[in-house]
Amino acid sequence: MLSKRPASLASAAAAIALLTGCSVASAREDPPPATVKSIPGSAVKQLNLTQQAVRRLGITTVAVRASRAPTHLPIPLHGRPATYRVIPYSAVVYDNDGSTWAFVNTAPRTYVRQRITVGAIQGSTAVLTAGPAYGAAVVTVGAPELLGTEYNISGEE
Question: Residues 35, 27: contact at Cβ < 8 Å?
């Protein structure tokens, strides 16, 4: 027995698609959790996440700060000045060739991988001799997931 309720447009489209062998994308589909955009002239990509993806990954950032060279290191470290950029070691990401990177939060829910040079590790702190500017927000929680997103690795392979 057929229902006397009027069918919604979406269910009617789905029924037609089923009968004709076509597929119909639902207008209510959620956007992808991340979009990956190429940056002209760069091998790195810009990652734009939905608010839900940021929450699900638990992404946390902290500002790059200035610090004097750790006391156990020669001053200056590798011939550089005695003030260095420091970030939590959890912000350091290694790629497949061993290069060191950090993801920088460049705009709301937007992240770009930036090359860093780690001069030393002191406990849970990475002392940088090159990297993001002082005050830049680097990702401390969720960076490996961002790297997987950039490289299109789902974690299920």
Answer: no
Q: Answer whether 88's CB lies under 8 Å from 141's CB.
A: no
CATH number of the domain within which 74 lies: 2.40.420.20
> Rounded to whole angstroms, how far apart are CA atoms 44 and 65?
24
Residue 153 per-residue DSSP state: -
Q: Could you read off the pLDDT of 17-32 as tens digits, one per residue?
A: 433 444 444 456 778 9
Please provide the distance, in angstroms rounded to a whole number, between the alpha carbons at the two ends of the chain. Answer: 47
Q: What is the pTM for the complete model shown?
A: 0.75
Question: Tens of pLDDT along 38-82?
Answer: 999 999 999 999 999 999 999 999 999 998 765 555 445 555 556
Give me the domain span that covers residue 103: 34-150
